[in-house]
Amino acid sequence: MNENRYAPLYRPPSFASMPKGVWWETVAVGPMDYNMSGMRPELPRSTSEYPFGIIKTDRALTPDEMESFELRAV
After folding, report:
1. Which residues pair with 56 in a beta bridge?
2. 13 contacts 53 by C-beta, under 8 angstroms
3. What is the mean pLDDT of residues 42-49?
4. Are 36 and 43 in contact (CB under 8 A)?
5. pLDDT: is 9 or 33 the higher one?
6. Cα(28)–Cα(26) distance, rounded to whole angstroms?
7. Sequence-distant (≥ 6) Cβ neighbours of residue 25 within 8 angstroms
8. What integer pLDDT is reported at residue 55 of this predicted model?
9. Which of 22, 24, 48, 72 makes the best surface tag, with the fewest CB within 10 Å?
10. Alpha helix (H) ranges present in the chain?
11. 19-45 pLDDT, tens per residue?
12. Is 10 within 8 Å of 72 (Cβ atoms)?
């Protein structure tokens, strides 16, 4: 699988904060993602540069998808 990594800018990743039909998973937990930090202690912690962690997707997102869902390529 091709790993495309993104950082959510304003909220933790969830099913409603990603484009429909895109497979994704959290690869690093951010200091502001309180739900994930307790549920996934095995994941590395991201720095304050990525307050809501880092996700990877199964495909590259388009610029429109990144803008609409407030994601930044990492």
Report:
1. 5, 25
2. yes
3. 64
4. yes
5. 9
6. 6
7. 55, 56
8. 92
9. 48
10. 34-39, 63-68
11. 889 999 988 887 776 555 555 665 656
12. no
